[in-house]
Amino acid sequence: MTTSELLMVFLQGTWGTVKLFGVTLIGSLVLGTVLAAMRVSPTPVLRGAAAAYVNIVRNTPLTLVMFFCVFGLPFLDIRASRDSALNSFVLACVALIAYTSCFVAETLRSGISTIPVGQAEAARAIGLNFGQTLRFVILPQAFRTVIPPLGSVIIAMLKNTSIASAFNNRELISAMRGAIEQRGDITLIVILATAAAYLVLSLVLGRIFDYLEKKWVIVR
């Protein structure tokens, strides 16, 4: 394997990681927000269901969640596509979303708890229902409050995408393994290059969240 071919393998692996991350980011934020809303809902059934889901999935190793989604769901005849590569990608994203959304929900719930109760009471006083109060008053402030911890959750999620390599997904770790198989003489360089790629991606995310924190910080 020539240097240019090796570089192409790493670029393909990086793109695979970015795709996994992008889909998981959107899905986790959406599902995590729904779970957080359910956790603070006045309906006991919704609160109980969300609490059960978060506590069960959050305390289950991600590898087991991934194993269930990638192998268990097809066993139950639940598939995203007949194409094995696409099916593995989608199911890996499902696993990552299911797992990460629990941490997003708990982070967002901690932000909701910092909002003064008087704001919710004022929203109800002007006729807003629970959903409208969350949407227009509580959640916008909660997201701005939890930008730093939410950034940590999302950066951890980026690194968690590496587990998908064990389930027929092409990303940085699978690219590293392929490169080592072809060029065992530069194993250390390949490992360091992989670590550097994750470091760069994590630093970029960190800078983005630093910018968001400074731009949207709430001064109390």
Automatic annotation (TrEMBL):
Any single GO CC term annotated in Swiss-Prot or TrEMBL for this entry: ATP-binding cassette (ABC) transporter complex
GO molecular function: transmembrane transporter activity
Record flagged with keyword Transmembrane: yes
Subcellular location: Cell membrane
Gene3D superfamilies (alphabetical): MetI-like
Ranges where the ABC transmembrane type-1 domain occurs: 14-209
Source species, domain of life: Bacteria
Name by which UniProt lists this protein: ABC transporter permease subunit
Source organism: Brevibacterium rongguiense
